[in-house]
């Protein structure tokens, strides 16, 4: 089985289960009524989607969407380019390691709940440069600029990422509109909060683990932004915590679907919704 650095080992109560809970999955919502000109004139079709999303947000905080409008070709291009990047030797990937000047680029020592994640990642901003506070002091009004770091190889990665970003950003804003409608608000109620946004895309790579019963690709956590738009490959492994009983449920991969995680920002009172963080994330896995 090999050795695993103790930094990766989860406490016994948080280690991966040997058995998977077999139960109903998170809601699967078909967005085709929003993409079909034939159904746009039928308010009942839209109302049904809005109702499903509202219920999913209340009951789960998660849902899957299909027929979402993101071009499959863009998805395949970024996945192929990401796999090429992560397949490189470590020294090549670390040439664009994130640092104190910018939190974008490659990283392989991320921790969740003080335990190291069994993964590598590559982050980049949706809008560049990203303006961020220069310090944690709320009285400090100085800002710093974070810029993207792009590797030399593969050369197609940057274009694939930028094209994909446009597609996922449209989907995220569409979903925010549907959430607004489910709350009885105008469809564009949240749009102004995401101008000059601080959204980012993350590519995650999970290498094979010699002791998978001890470590996790990403430990238990909440997402702090508005929405996470998550692409899962056929390997699976994602688990979500069911609200009503606290049970961890494995999400079965659905071809060409996105898993939507409603972040903490959506749960705060509306008058406090001042974030610019509309998080869109792409996860890549491997056996």
UniProtKB/TrEMBL annotation:
Domain Fe2OG dioxygenase: 197-287
Regions crossing the membrane: none
InterPro entries for the chain: DIOX_N, IPNS-like_FE2OG_OXY, IPNS-like_sf, Oxoglu/Fe-dep_dioxygenase_dom
Top-level lineage group: Eukaryota
Keywords, ordered alphabetically: Dioxygenase, Iron, Metal-binding, Oxidoreductase
GO molecular function: dioxygenase activity; metal ion binding
The family this protein is said to belong to: Belongs to the iron/ascorbate-dependent oxidoreductase family.
Protein name listed in UniProt: Probable 2-oxoglutarate-dependent dioxygenase At5g05600
